[in-house]
Amino acid sequence: MAVSVLPVVSKAALKEFIQLPPRLYKNFPNYTAPLTLERKGLLDPKKSAFFSHGKAQYWIAYKNNQAVGRISAQIDDAQPADAFDGAGLFGSLDAIDDEEVVKALLDAAEDWLRAQGVKRAFGPCLLSMNEEPGLLVDGHDEPPMIMVPWHPPYLERHLEACGYRQCRDLHFWRLDVAGAGVAELARHNLPSLREAGYAVRSLDMGSLRSEVEIFRHVYNDAWKDNWGFVPIESADLEGLSTDLKPFLHKDYGVIVEKEGRPIAIAMILPNLFEITGDLGANPSLLGWGKLAIRTFSHNFSTGRLVLFGILSEFQQSIGGAIIAMGMIEEIVSRKKKYKFEWVEAGWVLDNNRPMIKILKQFNFQRTRTLRLFDKVI
Q1: Going by CATH, does the domain composed of 174-370 fall within 3.30.360.10?
Q2: Which of 61, 79, 174, 214 is the most exposed place for a label (fewest CB within 10 A)?
């Protein structure tokens, strides 16, 4: 039977769009459904920060009167004009193992992007490069991680069959924090941050909103000249100071200062799948009760290192190397405070040799790969 692809134009269709992946992947043992409530925050135009600086269209594919796939196409106005050769984005790509379905979805997204005046499609991204970019191509059996997408292996094959080619790979690197020791890891003969004259502090939880702005400012400056950089807008980090605040600890954040000026940052987010993973996408009343209890009682054992950055003026120098290694040392030295067994740093570009070198020096091991694809349309 032919595949039909319909745009999402109603509340009912939006609900189906958001809740479709758990239905499509329910028989995959390595898939763990995120909470629908959390997905709504990312995808619902009335809730998502993306729509304050971009626009998108969603579609659902049907076959035999059943929803069998979904896709989005989007234009991010925060994206620099020359990023990705001026490409528009596609994302939210989830489907059954059927090349015809995937092609029909991609055709719909490409038609919309062409109508926006772009000649290249790039993705998948949900919805921007700052929101779960890439298709999972390695690490399907790894435990679920916050803000890391999961896709079945066959989607890579179908994308390539539709003319999409690998653009860049984004890698995740894991550190066994429980077994790590600063003395054993830090054999680089560089002074510590404090010995080098830098001040190191944790998050000020009483001023979290202003702290998040510090992270945004430093991150945007640190990565502005790197491939794939899209500035983080204030609205994009709203969740850190609101939705995620109950799960944060002051020692999850590292802020390095020079003469009172923030010059480098690092943030660990606790892996919320630890408390939501067994509840399903739409928990029962009992499930919500469990989540409420876990929110205030659970000791997280895994996390993700995000928003790692050093002001550009300090990069490409001995001082920059001291700061980068010093921040990782600081994270390791705090292990008794936050009790993580392991943390993952990601994403890291496949050609970011300086960062990869540092991660390897600290015994980080590569665990997953997310791949970005593009195509002239």
Answers
A1: no
A2: 214
